[in-house]
Amino acid sequence: QVQLVESGGGVVQPGRSLRLSCAASGFTFRNYGMHWVRQAPGKGLEWVAVIWYDGGNDQYADSVRGRFTISRDNSKNTLNLQMNSLRAEDTAVYYCARARGGQQDGLDIWGQGTLVTVSS
Amino acid sequence: DIQMTQSPSTLSASVGDTVSITCRASQSINSWLAWYQQKPGKAPKLLIYKATSLESGVPSRFSGSGSGTEFTLTINSLQPDDFATYYCQQYKSYSTFGQGTKVDIK
Fold first, then answer.
1. pLDDT tens digits, one per residue of A95-117
2. Which among B47, B37, B40 is positioned nearest to B87, based on CA atoms?
3. What is the reported pLDDT for B62?
């Protein structure tokens, strides 16, 4: 079935780095734009980043630009988020999600989320 | 950046009620708007895309309207499964979510 599974979350100290991955299955991954969305504990959804279907373009929220890098490996059906210089305010559940019909579209498939906790 | 403002923040309703949630954009986003439902501990679920298009498998009691800067999600005949938090999302320029509307039981 169509599925996204995130991994890589955990507890990390402020200023350190963490890499999240999202494994896609059940659909032709290379045809879809992919997003990362996060949700701090008890808070709303915050869009983080998008990458075009071919990896040729990406965009970031102001809050993470210059610190986070989104990437993808279409040969391995994998989406990644490299997070550097982490801050306490980056603590959140991170979801990967598929854009249904284009790079910028409604997000129709979501992973279960992976929790990132930034704390000393 | 485009800001999205949802209202109300909380809405108390009963089974069978018709409820509406409003989302306002700080500038025109044409129809590049989606609506999601989220339940505690779960990932969001896409309900509506392109402001008015119902996602496959979503009950027809959900509907979306609006364009430009003002949008509405309407739920007709609220069901027990509909008590949840709802978010709008613009995707005209980058992407932004509204702050959410919690629909709870009156």
1. 999 999 877 799 999 999 999 99
2. B37
3. 98
Closest alpha carbon within chain B to A96 = B43
Q: In what order do the strands lie in the sheet with A78-83?
A: A3-7, A18-25, A78-83, A68-73
Closest to B95 (Cα-Cα) out of A36, A96, A11, A32: A36
B99 in Cβ contact with B43 (< 8 Å): no
The beta-carbon neighbor of B49 closest among A50, A61, A106 is A106
Q: Which of A101, A104, A113 sits opposite B43 (nearest CB)?
A: A113
- Give residues with Cβ within 8 angstroms of B46, minimum separation 6: A100, A106, A107, A108, B34, B35, B36, B55, B58
CB contact under 8 A, A95 and B49: no
CB distance from A106 to chain B under 8 Å? yes
A35 contacts in chain B (CB < 8 Å): 95
Which chain B residues are within 8 Å of A46, Cβ to Cβ? 97
Alpha-carbon gap: B43 to the closest alpha carbon of chain A (Å)? 6
**Joined tokens for residue B22:** 């409003």
Q: What does the alpha-carbon distance between residue B24 and residue B84 come to, in Å, rounded to a whole number?
A: 20
How many H-runs (helices) and E-runs (strands) does chain B carry?
0, 11
pLDDT digits (tens, 9 = 90+) for B17-67: 999 999 999 999 999 999 999 999 999 999 999 999 999 999 999 999 999
